[in-house]
Write a structure and sequence with these properties.
There is one protein chain. It contains 7 helices and 17 strands. By secondary structure, it is α+β, with helices and mostly antiparallel strands. An 8-stranded antiparallel β-sheet has the order 1-2-12-13-17-16-15-14, sandwiched between helices. The chain is globular and about 55 Å long.
């Protein structure tokens, strides 16, 4: 994969490398949150009684629709988070595998879900991605470890000193919104980019690469908010990473990924997934008709 580094920004203990790839904007699709807002799709409970780890998605449009793993959906019987990235075909219906991020509610507040301004923090995404990969290898589908997700939400609540009566990840995060906004304003977006690598000190936290630059621009602030949560309560100290080191490590990760062993699985919607896993990171690459739609790589090492 040909990657061109575009920019480097550092603030306190977080650093971001934005980059572009040679093949970008090769496939036409819109984001799930935008599609919901425009009433092009509907996401709802699978039935009146509902199912914690499944939702029904109906695409009413002639557009392909993309959801990113970690997207938080709000409403219905309880708030959920997507277990994997999904590309939905036009005029189709599918079962969406999700995890609950609101343990203390099981009652309807709306008939359909609405999008939020957040995706789950990288630590939750990493654990969820690892669990889903393990379940796929065993033929169990795109399901995460629900108890592990709830435990991670509890840990984040304590970490942020932010609490919700229903143990709701959305509410826990939203209460700290102003703090996160001040933080992410230190990282201006590069509109030429379609991917970013995020570091805490010299440790790579995550990489997200999108096919489209407009989808990247839509998800960029959400990615920064989720990363700000990772460093919110870390003690201040000098961040030793240099621009040269961050660029080198970003390119090296892609080189390492190309050589790594992987398994291939059918996507939840259309397309196929390549899934990678070693002792340091987990990754998932969603492709459709030779177009890379989304690549997510998440670090498994603990941030101190």
């Amino acid at each position: 994969m040909q990657v061109q580094i575009l920019s480097f920004n550092k603030h306190r203990r977080l650093s971001i490398v934005q980059f572009s790839t040679l093949e970008q904007n090769t496939f036409d699709y819109i984001s799930g949150p935008k599609a919901i807002s425009k009433e092009l799709i509907e996401v709802r409970e699978v039935s009146m009684s509902g199912s914690v780890n499944n939702l029904e998605l109906v695409n009413l449009s002639d557009k392909f629709v993309f959801f990113m793993d970690g997207d938080i959906l709000v409403g219905a019987k309880q708030n959920r988070v997507l277990n994997t990235s999904v590309l939905v075909a036009p005029n189709s219906k599918l079962n969406l595998p999700v995890s609950c991020v609101e343990q203390g509610r099981w009652r309807s507040v709306s008939s359909k879900f609405r999008p939020s301004d957040y995706i789950s923090p990288d630590i939750i995404r990493a654990k969820k991605l690892k669990a889903v990969t393990g379940n796929l290898k065993k033929g169990r589908g795109h399901f995460a470890d629900q108890s592990e997700v709830w435990a991670s939400v509890d840990e984040l609540s304590v970490k942020l000193n932010s609490y919700s009566p229903s143990f709701d990840l959305f509410e826990i995060i939203d209460k700290k919104k102003d703090t996160f906004e001040d933080f992410i304003n230190k990282f201006p977006i590069d509109n030429r980019a379609n991917g970013l690598a995020i570091f805490t000190d010299t440790l790579p936290l995550s990489i997200d690469l999108f096919n489209r630059t407009d989808i990247y621009q839509e998800y960029y602030p959400k990615r920064l908010r989720s990363s700000a949560m990772e460093v919110y309560n870390l003690s201040d100290r000098e961040n030793p990473i240099t621009e040269a080191e961050a660029k080198f490590k970003t390119l090296n990760i892609f080189d390492e990924l190309e050589k790594a062993e992987h398994t291939i699985h059918n996507g939840v919607g259309v397309g196929t997934e390549k899934r990678y896993e070693n002792e340091r990171f987990v990754a998932m690459e969603l492709s459709y008709n030779s177009h890379l739609i989304h690549l997510a790589l998440l670090n498994l090492e603990k941030v101190n």
